[in-house]
Amino acid sequence: MNKKEISEIRKQFTPANCAISRICGCYVDHEKNKKFETKSAFLTLPEEEEFKYFDIFKHTLGGTLGKHLVNMEFPLEQEMPGGTQEFLLKLRNTELQDDELVSAFYDKIIENYIYDENYYIILVYASYDIPGKTSDNLEMFDASDEVYSYLLCSICPVKMSKACLSYNQEENCMEDHIRDWLVEMPVNGFLFPAFNDRGADLHSLLFFAKKPEDAQDLLIENVFGSTIPLTPKTQQETFQSIIESSLGEDADYELVRDLYENIADLVEETKEAPDPLQLTKPEMRQLLENSGASEEQVESFDKTYDEMAGEQTALQATNITNPKSFEISTPNIQIKVDPTCTDLIETRIIDGRQCLVITVDDHVEINGMNVRTIRRNQEKAPQDFSE
Fold first, then answer.
1. Which of 20, 159, 237, 351 has the fewest beta carbons under 10 Å from its own?
2. d(CA 69, CA 188)
3. How far is it, in rounded angstroms, from Cα 95 to Cα 200?
4. Cα-based distances in Å from 29 to 39, 203, 262
5. What is the pTM of this model?
6. How far apart, in whole angstroms, are the C-alpha atoms of residue 159 and residue 94?
7. Which residues make beta-bridge pairs with 23?
8. What's the CA gap between 113 and 126, in Å, rounded?
């Protein structure tokens, strides 16, 4: 799914556009015990509850694509009888009316979900009448020829509210507030099937993780049967290891700076694209060459990439670098630079020592205080460190 397709589904979570017909829930305690199960027609809920659920569902399809939201495909064997895809398909096709099947789904989640506190599993069935579109991309709500039926699952922590004082209006006094168990915004969830090319893609789903590094490996392996994707942190670490190994001792500041600048430029050029920028091995190789890497370094990159990432692996550009931040660190100093001004820093050998030289104008602050950049007795005779 791309950003536009995700946005189209999120827009349904309003009273005017709601396509949800059934909602089921299961409250699980920290010892993996089912405390209760519930089911009802969604539109019979009080309006206040509907709005709270809408907020939860929007969060389940929120975040950065490729970071918090990850597209996953089912391996072919999982689409065979008894596979994970077949189970989810049965669950969808019964529209959550089969209580035993819904309960079996809860059991699968509880068995494979790693969480040390109480949580609430919310599962909804919806049927979206997809509006057609004209040649100039305008929606025609009376020209639908396909219905997208799907399941959306949200897993929400349930935590005790904080101790506090509250105002008792009837008694006109302050008193100890009764602490309640509150359902928080989801930390994990999924949409099945995926909404690709504005239609149901039974071969894939969209997985949500509020904390991308909390991969929930067992859930992905045993409930979805899918391959565990590289987390953003793992992608970043893999990229750094590949570049460090490829460049070796010749990983000079200017080369690495130019490499990050070139990646940031690509991110900026593609920021309006519906899909996040993925960098394949050939594209990464070209970036290295454009940044000034030698032939030997590029050849080393070819071998190192295959060993550390795999020839067919692509890395998401926004996961391996932050185009809004550029940092230089030593054991005792950290410098943060506007990514558009990295050319103000260069390396020089001064008095036999390797130094970072920062070009500054007359406006310099220390802890918010304006200071002069050159001592008065040096203004007339500045030293030349260029040699």
1. 351
2. 10
3. 15
4. 19, 33, 49
5. 0.81
6. 32
7. 40, 124
8. 24
Integer CA distances (angstroms), 148 to 105, 110, 125, 343, in order? 21, 28, 11, 51
Encoded tokens for 91: 């669950």
Residue with tokens 């949200």, as numbered in its chain: 154
Give pLDDT tens digits along the chain (387 positions). 999 999 999 999 999 999 999 999 999 999 999 999 999 999 999 999 999 999 999 999 999 999 999 999 999 999 999 999 999 999 999 999 999 999 999 999 999 999 999 999 999 999 999 987 765 666 665 656 789 999 999 999 999 888 888 888 988 999 888 888 999 999 999 999 999 999 999 999 999 999 988 878 899 999 999 887 788 999 999 999 999 999 887 778 888 889 998 998 898 899 888 889 999 999 999 999 999 989 999 999 999 999 998 888 899 999 988 878 888 888 888 888 888 788 888 888 888 888 888 887 767 887 878 876 555 545 555 555 544
Distance CA 281, CA 286 (A): 9
User: For residue 67, what are the contacts with CB-CB under 8 A and spacing of at least 6?
Assistant: 212, 232, 316, 318, 319
**Treating both helix axes as pointing N-terminal to C-terminal, what angle do 99-112 and 84-93 enclose, rounded to 10 degrees?**
140
Q: What angle do CA 373, 376, 381 make, to 5 degrees?
A: 95
